[in-house]
Amino acid sequence: MLADLSPLIAATTQWLTRSYPACGGALAAALGEAQARQAVTVAAWLRYPTPTDAALVGMAGPGGSAGLDWITGADATGPDGDADDAAWRTWVDEIVASWAACLLTDDELARLAVGAIAGGGHTAHSPIDFRRLVSPDAHDRRAAALLRHPDLLAPVAALHRTALDERLGPGQALIA
Predict the structure, then answer these.
(1) Of 32, 90, 135, 145, which is the most exposed, with the fewest CB atoms less than 10 Å away?
(2) How far apart are CA 7 and CA 43, in angstroms?
(3) pLDDT tens column, 103-142
(4) The model's pTM
(5) Which CA distances in Å does 80 have to 77, 89, 110, 118?
């Protein structure tokens, strides 16, 4: 199942880490990417909980980063933008990015989301640790200062926060 969503997870993670880069060198970049990837993975698994959901987004595509780029002021078509850059951006999922932003800026919501996917179809065959998302240490927080800053991520998080709250609300069981 993870393979079905891997292009979406990779592209959305890349968008987050480019939009909110780590501070402090290669180790910080790796820690920031790990946190972004964990948040995006949880968000994607919440958004696409069944094999059918994953297959449909794989066929139709997630929509791309244009709306997110506009909100954050990124210029995806600037002098550094090339065909390869445009290609991965088509796999960015706005809702998943928004939900990941919510999870990165709210530790309790992140724990609730990880609990919601536990035992579901994505996690049924192997235990997955989302420690860097749900209980980041001081090194994680320093490395991802921009990525976890509630004020900076607010415009992205606000886009689809209501849908995430509905998904995680009382009585909202995931179909696995």
Answers:
(1) 135
(2) 14
(3) 999 999 999 999 999 866 665 556 678 999 999 999 999 9
(4) 0.89
(5) 7, 14, 34, 40
